[in-house]
Design brief:
2 domains; six-stranded antiparallel beta barrel; 12 strands; Thrombin, subunit H; alpha+beta; 37% helix; 286 residues; 6 helices
Length: 286
C-alpha cells in the first residue's frame, strides 16, 4: 500500500525524498567514521575556496558604491588597524589577569605562559565548513601566512579553538564547542583543575570530572591551564552558569557559558609561537 502511494507522488517529490534519505545516510556514516570521508572533504574544501572568496564580493561592491573608492579604502584600513590594536590589547590583558591571580595565590611563583611568547595574526572568518555536524569555520589565512595545524585561535574575549587543516590561503578552525573538543582549565578563584568539553552548540560548554565536594560556584571564571601543551595557559574559556548534583555518580553536572563569541565573530587571532617563527625565518634566510 505504501509503495503504491509513494509511486503516485510527483516525480520531483520522489527525487527530493530519495536525495534527503541518501544525504541522511551519508551524514550518519560520516558522524560514525569521519576518516572515511576525509579525502573527499579535503578535495571539496579546496574546490570551494573560490566560492568563499566570491561570497565576499557583494560586501565589497556595497562598500564601494556608497562612496569614493579611495576614501572607503582608507577608512577600511584605519578600521582594520584599530580593530587589530583593540583585539591585541584585550588578548594580552587576559593573560595579565591570569598572571596576577597566580601571583596572589602562589606568592610570587609564576608558572604560566608569557604574553610575549606569541605573535598574534589577525584573520577573518569567511565561511563555515560543509560538515553541518561539526563546529568548524574557515579562515582567510593559511600556510602562506604562517598558519600551522594545532595553533590556538582566540578572539578578544577568550579561546575559540584550534587549527585542524591548513591550505595555501585558508585554514579550518575546530571550535571548542564541538563535541569532540576538550580544553584543560583551571577555576580562577580556587585553582582547581578540570576539563571543559563542547556540546555541539555555540552557546554552551560542560565542565567534567568535578566531584560533589569540590568548591565550584555559579559565576566562577574558567581559564586554560596549559595542561597537555595543546592550548597555552591563561586564556579565558568560560564562566560557570549552572551547577547540579545528580544522584547517579559522585560528579557534578556543570554547565558553562563560553567566554568567546561563537555566533557572530568576523575577526579572530591566531596564536603563533615567536620562537618557531624566528627559527623558520632563520632557516629561510640560510
Amino acid at each position: 500500500m505504501i509503495p503504491s502511494i509513494f509511486a503516485r507522488q510527483p516525480l520531483a517529490l520522489r527525487k527530493t525524498a530519495i536525495v534527503l534519505i541518501v544525504a541522511l545516510i551519508l551524514m550518519w556514516f560520516d558522524s560514525k567514521n569521519p576518516e572515511w570521508f576525509n579525502p573527499i572533504r579535503t578535495t571539496t574544501h579546496a574546490a570551494m575556496q573560490p566560492i568563499y572568496e566570491l561570497s565576499l564580493l557583494p560586501s565589497y561592491a556595497k562598500h564601494w558604491s556608497s562612496g569614493s573608492l579611495q576614501s572607503k579604502e582608507a577608512l577600511r584600513r584605519e578600521n582594520m588597524q584599530l580593530k587589530s590594536q583593540l583585539i591585541h590589547a584585550q588578548a594580552k590583558l587576559q593573560q595579565q589577569d591570569y598572571i596576577l591571580a597566580q601571583n596572589a595565590r602562589l606568592q610570587g611563583i609564576l608558572s604560566t605562559t608569557r604574553p610575549e611568547q606569541f605573535d598574534l595574526n589577525l584573520a577573518q572568518v569567511i565561511g563555515t565548513d560543509t560538515n553541518l555536524l561539526r563546529q568548524i569555520v574557515v579562515l582567510n589565512k593559511g600556510e602562506q601566512d604562517g598558519v600551522q595545524v594545532g595553533q590556538t585561535v582566540i578572539d578578544e574575549d577568550g579561546i575559540l579553538g584550534q587549527i585542524i587543516n591548513v591550505y595555501p590561503n585558508t585554514s579550518r578552525l575546530l571550535l571548542i564547542t564541538d563535541e569532540q573538543q576538550s580544553v584543560a582549565v583551571t577555576v580562577k578563584r580556587t585553582g582547581q583543575r578540570a576539563i571543559v568539553t563542547g556540546e555541539g552548540i555555540p552557546t554552551s560548554l560542560r565542565l567534567n570530572y568535578v566531584f560533589k565536594t569540590s568548591d565550584v560556584r555559579v559565576g566562577d571564571e574558567l581559564v586554560s591551564s596549559g595542561l597537555g601543551g595543546r592550548i597555552p595557559a591563561g586564556y579565558r574559556v568560560g564562566r560557570i552558569a549552572h551547577v547540579e548534583d545528580t544522584q547517579a555518580d559522585n560528579f557534578r553536572s556543570i554547565e558553562v557559558t563560553p567566554a568567546a563569541n561563537f555566533i557572530d565573530n568576523a575577526y579572530v587571532l591566531v596564536l603563533q609561537d615567536k620562537l618557531s617563527n624566528e627559527r623558520n625565518a632563520g632557516i629561510s634566510e640560510n
